[in-house]
Amino acid sequence: xxxxxxDSGLGMLPTAGWLRHLRPDAHLDLxxxxxxxxxxxxxxxxxxxxxxxxxRLAIARGADAVVVPCNTASVNALxxxxxxxxxxxxxxxxxxxxKPAAASGEPFGVWATEATSASAYQADLVALFxxxxxxxxxxxxxxxxxxxxxxxxxxxxxxxxGAARTPDDVTGIVxxxxxxxxxxxxxxxxxxxVRLYDSAGAVAGQxxxxxxxxxxxxxxxxxxxxVLSGDEGPLPAAARSYPVGAALAAGGSVGVxxxxxxVRGDPVSHESFSGARPLSGR
Length: 282
Description:
This protein is α/β, with parallel strands linked by helices and 282 residues long. It has two domains: 2-94 and 200-258, Rossmann fold; 98-198, Rossmann fold, CATH 3.40.50.1860. It is built from twelve helices and ten strands. Helix 1 crosses helix 10, helix 1 crosses helix 12 and helix 7 (143-149) runs antiparallel to helix 8 (152-165). It is globular, with a radius of gyration of 17 Å. It starts with a strand and ends in a 32-residue tail after the last helix. This is Aspartate/glutamate racemase family protein.
């Protein structure tokens, strides 16, 4: 079994780590795009072409399923990607964990990039699942970039700024950018007692379900390959600075202790949310 993950950078690591933990015998192809990143500032049509190009390469390499662990890429490219690959091969996208946070009935914040925080996409998700006034958008300027470059000082400054913008009454935080789970320990420390909601574990579980696979964390590990803007290469040094990245680079199984906590409850599928709109052109 071969599973491809497509993202511009390190935001794929939490989902890749969960897949590696649940089914270490599935070969992972990590298709990153350092030449084109960050995708969030690109036009929607450009993102679609970049994702489709990566997916075609993944299929040529033997992928049985394609995962898009990126909110921006999922919003822009999931429909054309599924039109091209399914039903022969399942395609699994990513949605911020707003639904399970809203199901708590408590006030929560949504940490995300400035662009996503201001997007109709996030507003529609909140309107669909949360009660009026239950959710607060918390833009986190620079946090995704700081995580991507593994800059400790910049990460700390961005996390502290996000915590300062977070209302005092929230009991949960949705990690609305797939980079943020890589520093979930720092976010949790900055917001004591606040529960973090992340969709990486749910996306990994959905991928296995689409493939008809049960978790088998004791299976013999298969390989992990890295493709950087079309060329095979090593996992970037910044990725290896995070525990989950180091575990993936080592090629063995991934222990649960290096993974972000999974979200309880079913993931939100894009089939059930028809109001998604591109994040570009705001």
